[in-house]
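Hello,

Following up on my earlier ticket. Below are the two sequence lines again, exactly as submitted.
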Amino acid sequence: MFYREAGDFKTSYQSDQATFTLRLDKILFWGLMAIATFIVPFFVTEYWEKSVFLPFFIYSIAALGLNILTGYCGQVSLGTGGFMAVGAYASFKLMTGIPNLDMFLVIMIAGLVTALVGVLFGLPSLRIKGFYLAVATLASQFFLVWLFNKWEWSYNYSPTGQINAPTRDFLGIDVTGPSTAPWATYLFCLGLLFIFAWITRNLVRGHIGRSWMAIRDMDIAAEIIGVNPLIAKLSAFAVSSFFIGVAGALYFSVWLGAAEPTEAFAIDKSFDVLFMIIIGGLGSILGSMIGAAFIILLPIFFKNVLVGYCGIPTDIAEFTQIIFIGALIIFFLIKEPHGIVAYWRTLKEKLRLWPFPY
Amino acid sequence: MEEKKQNNRIMEVKDITLRFGGVTAIEGVSFDILEGEVRAIIGPNGAGKSSMLNVINGFYHPQQGEVWFNGQKRGAMKPYQIAYQGIARTFQNIALFKGMSTLDNIMTGRFTHMKSGMISQVFWKGKAEKEEYENREAVEKVIDFLEIQTIRKTEVGKLPYGLQKRVELGRALAAEPKLLLLDEPMAGMNVEEKEDMSRFILDVNEEFGTTVALIEHDMGVVMDIADRVVVMDYGKNIGDGTPKEIVSNQKVVDAYLGVSHD
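Thanks for your patience. The regenerated structure is below:
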């Protein structure tokens, strides 16, 4: 029962390759999920929904997506904001074009559209690596935002250039539009995050995930083993963009309700998501979520503490918070480049033989 | 030994010439590898041995010459297509997937045996799951064979050099290749590790019937484990035969084994 691997024997490959190899992990996870699904919805207020839970869930999905590409497949991307915009505009066109389409389908189709765009912008990855690829994806970020500013069809010729989410439902329950119940959007996004975390887990434990990691760690060796680099890289781009497109669609339709490309999908979104996976942990599902929580929740926490309790003026509090988070990012990059999850792993390793040193 | 000689040619390279710009790395080299033998390629540094493996592997495309595999002439192929034909290899400088565990590294070696599609993978039902456990079983056999059970879950970047070499051999073996190419499998090892590695190579050859082609500098090892030896120098084939014939070949002695000054 104690939280450690020692003495925990497996008798089948199934149990050895299970998601939660430790019983306590399993109990903790399902306990947390049960609380999140059955208890929290009764208490969730609009403030908690709009400024804590939705951003956390949506950015977690985006971080999972980028982690597939950058953490697992080793291809750096700075185009996250642009791909989120593709998801958002695809969902907008679907919601306005086919009014009675279920919101779940809207989100999925928006994801597919983004996956296609992602593959297109992933093509340079076959020739270039590292910083150069980052710059190529940066181009996609600026191009896509420019496109949604200029292409009038994409925002239905609205004079402001803004897109607004109409009311749409998921199985009869409204999840977008102005009159949604906090619990409905909360559960909708929580469910999607759960599904996408599970999909990520399934992909990275199978041979497709291993082909991504092989490309990341040693592309030449991957090739002689039979991994086609074209398929491995483009499939990583496709899956990653699918996730980011879904996150973008949720971001616009469920969370914000209205968006305008230059503001909502700017380059700082790309950086935010990249920071999330670096701080949380590259190549880790838990890390993506920890990183999202860190980047999303810490500012809120700071604002409440500094402004609410200490009575510091809002603008000074904001600057203090930016400085502090910047310092924390530097601290993590120096002290623990593998992200916050590395602490978790070290703890687990230490507990294996605790109280003996070895 | 005599019995082996009658086997088919699994691989034949004919008159290979490979140039990089003005440099000729390999010039008109031909040799064959028989099914089931241990074939050594030796020669001084820069003789073109690794380049030769890269040609067989599909990394380099020679300007001239033909590569025959399993009795068929091979057209221009990509390395990953060649992997599907049943050729696996290890590298001179270890090329493991450093961020992955030993188990995952060797599982990746099974890549050519895993065919479940993206959809099945996403939902982890049916083929994907079944295939994973079947291949895990094959991988466990390789792990048992190489006696690396204790490091199964260790990240390979943290392993000592000798074990990394062994994991790399395991990764190549997991593919169940017809032809196994080893680029200096014993470089940088002490005598004991070399003995272990030699034993593994011979066991692979005898138990699984895998054809082995290896590049090695330790002449003692080559004498002991190779059935036939090719000697290369300055991109040319200067000798070919059994280890005994090679040591008595004057050209080889001059170029590689060293001339005694007495």
